[in-house]
Amino acid sequence: MNEQQREENRESKEKVQKDETRTERRFRFQRTRLIPIWLRLIIVAVLMAISLAAGAMIGYGAIGGRNPFEVFQRSTWQHIIDFVEKGTQRK
After folding, report:
1. pLDDT value for 20
2. Are residues 88 and 59 in the same domain?
3. 53: domain range?
4. For residues 75 and 73, what is the distance between their CA atoms, to the nearest angstrom?
5. Could you say which of 35, 72, 80, 87 has the lowest number of CB atoms within 10 Å?
6. How far apart are CA 61 and CA 67, in angstroms?
7. pTM strictly above 0.85
8. Are residues 22 and 40 in the same domain?
9. What is the pLDDT of residues 23-68, one digit of tens each?
10. Cα–Cα distance between 14 and 37 in angstroms, integer?
11. Residue 49 vs residues 43, 46, 52, 53, 67: alpha-carbon distances, Å
12. How many CB atoms sit inside 10 A of residue 50's CB?
């Protein structure tokens, strides 16, 4: 009977060790986010706006041969809209 008790103890210890290993794995792979998702979305939106402004400045300044900061003036965009809508008829 001693042999049977030893076998049962060994099996129960193995089972406890397996359970502990599973919980350790669960905790080991659980990550905390350094940057929350909502902040990531805001960062992406800001970076996209900066990219849009930089691209417009490069296109208007370098390719167009004008002052890059004129791209932010309302009259510049009104001129572009008028140029695009030149051939269309408004109702």
Report:
1. 64
2. yes
3. 34-91
4. 5
5. 87
6. 5
7. no
8. no
9. 666 566 667 888 899 999 999 999 999 999 999 999 999 988 889 9
10. 40
11. 10, 5, 5, 6, 20
12. 10
